[in-house]
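Q: Structure tokens for this one, please.
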Amino acid sequence: MATMADVARSAGVSVATVSHVLNGTRPVLPHTRQAVLDAVEELGYTTNTLARALVTSRTRSIGLAVSAISNPYFTEILQGVEAAALEAGYSLLIADPHDDPEHERTVVRLLHERRVDGMIVAPSADPRGLLAYLERHDVPAVFLDRLVDAPEADGPPRFDQVCADSAEPTSRLVGHLAGLGHRRIGMVAGLPGLSTTTERIMGYRTGLAFAGLPYDERLLVHGDSASAGAEEAVAALLSLAVPPTALVTGNNAMTIGALRALRAHGLSVPDDIALCCFDDFAWADLFSPRLTAIAQPSRDIGARAVGVLLERLAEPDRPARTLRLPCTFVHRTSCGCPSEEGTRRDRRRR
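A: Here is the predicted structure, written as tokens:
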């Protein structure tokens, strides 16, 4: 097996230069860098990651703990994390905490035992044990999608956090439905305890207030961020003496559950009930009707989380920060009005 010394001899440079080229620790002249890379290719040299970790105390690996990896939203986040990590020369170790606080602590401990340089975590609804472990062991960590330090909390955040806006986009969905004449707008909210759930409920209530509509607690139900939970929650809404004429769902899984419940009750979207959802996904445009949705910048959230973590590794003592990324309103037809794209086509025909 070729060694770094073999590469250095073949390229006519020092071992230190080879190390700088492979690890990116110091600028190297382009022709020298190319000579090293050519020697690496010719000799079939591979880096001894374990030996390097013993010397540097760094494994150039990142732990990612994200629940519901099968969820398209988190799958796209994973793609953003992976691409950014690989570009920076880091490998990725992935674990699914299953949104269970006890299992969350277990998988984070296992990642830490594998000596990852830092972690990116989408925390559960009860992250107290997770936070205690990270603080006790001084693990560099970035939280994504869900916040552990609420925006209204006193003082600076304790951890770096990267997420999308939740409140204002939800308020916009409610306002859009109210503008179409709906006066009883229901919301299927996520798992209690998650910051995303709290903020989207806040946005729902703000949207009602802006539209001059009263808040009716009977119209707010929890689908627990899952399809089955949303199906039951929507069935409860439809059993009300005066059911809602429009719905806002808090994530893509709950949108699927809501659609199942509406179909089971023989209701058509948007003819019988309008629907807007938080989270866009690849096949939202293929539903009939096409789903009006809030699209989160999921891949960018993942990539930015890696960037923030690398900054933390480079500057361990810098203040923590919360980075919020804007969402996009995707206007289609499930809300009961023509999509903007369809409207533009109609105008071109005139």
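A few notes: The chain is about 45% helix and 15% strand. The longest strand covers residues 61-65.
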